[in-house]
Amino acid sequence: MVFLTRTLLLRKYSKEFVDKLRIHVRGGTGGNGLPTLGGVGGRGGDVYLVGSQDPKLTLKSMKDRYPMKRFVADTGQNSRKNALSGLNGASIYVQVPLGITVIDAANHKVIGEISKKTDKILVSRGGRGGMRSTMFRPKYGQRRNLYLDLKLIADVGFVGFPNAGKSTLLSRLSNASPKVASYPFTTITPQIGLIQYPDFRKIQLADLPGLVEGACLNKGRGHSFLKHIERTKLLLFVVDIHGFQLSPKHQFRDALETLQLLTEELKLYDETLLSKPSLLAVNKMDLPGSEKVYQELIDELNKWEGKIILPSFPKICHPIDTESNEIMKFKEVFPISAQTGIGSQELTTRIRELIDNRTFTSKHMLGTGDNNGISSTETKHITSNVSSSVH
């Protein structure tokens, strides 16, 4: 049975995609006290950040709506003869998109994260009102500069080098309309697609701009792209079966070397990413000679022991011996053609199985020590099913 019946485009970010925004917040100043009668001024309002599910709310829209990027709460009211206790100033609640990490710009410490609409973070306290202990003088509210760092919330994150066919695969699975061409870097901003199944189950796919060798050093804005897969539940590696070469100045990499390099880039950015469940989509299987090369790749993966040496791997990026390189342990390998649709339905079905299994495990088997929510016994031995998929 084929589960996929139709697909929808969830969101396509503009070229002015913003994933980090600096803002200034300030709690309200307290109100003046009244010395003659011992009156106490009202407290200044606080500043909160709250999650919003509004699909139109992005960091870009916040930047456009609040060009000064300043959020200041109300001042507390002064104490008066007919109101000795001044009223507190109103707090303000700034709506932000989901997937935000709030960072203090002064010390770069994480204050908190907003991943669901019920999340609320107090980021700036209002000042106390004037009272006897302060000589009836009010206190200023807390002032802070903050970074709002967006990490996309998606179920599946695409990982691959430029021109591997990620954008074509996204359009095949979700009817998204990313720019597609036969040259690298056609995807310059993250794009989100949505798969909808017959039972109305929806799974989000995130296509990120292609990585380059040295992404761990932030080459090609590697850090700003890699951070978006931190919250994904499943990684989908997409490689060209015939290898990849960024330009004539760069060394050609076959499919196995490509996988090794991608694994290293993820490991050096954040080693915990290697514990995420992952699938491998070997793309461009419609091209002549693909079946033979695919069989060789499968044979190499099945006997993989981490002994391949990549002498030209950026040594500044990898301080240890390259002989210890690893390759991601994939749940399953799919020979596909994003261009013609070969293997796309099988891939979509397997994505659903893994995502649903993780969701079930997270709810019913917490504390078992399985960070991925997917049993290790579920990993399938890699076999060559290229003949049934391609022909």
From TrEMBL:
The name under which this protein is listed is GTP-binding protein 10
Provide one Gene Ontology cellular component: mitochondrion
Annotated OBG-type G domain residues: 154-356
Q: Where is the composition biased (Polar residues)?
A: 369-391
Q: Which UniProt keywords apply?
A: GTP-binding, Nucleotide-binding
Q: Does the keyword Nucleotide-binding apply?
A: yes
**InterPro entries (UniProt xref):** G_OBG, GTP-bd, GTP1_OBG_dom, GTP1_OBG_dom_sf, OBG_GTPase, P-loop_NTPase, Small_GTP-bd
Q: Which Pfam families match?
A: GTP1_OBG, MMR_HSR1
Q: What Gene Ontology terms for biological process does this UniProt record contain?
A: ribosome biogenesis
Entries under CDD domains matching the protein: Obg
Region Disordered: list its residue ranges: 366-391
| Highest rank taxon of the organism | Eukaryota
Q: Which organism is it from?
A: Ciona savignyi
State the Gene Ontology terms under molecular function.
GTP binding; GTPase activity
Q: Which residues form the Obg domain?
A: 15-153
Q: Which PROSITE patterns does the record match to this protein?
A: G_OBG (PS51710), OBG (PS51883)
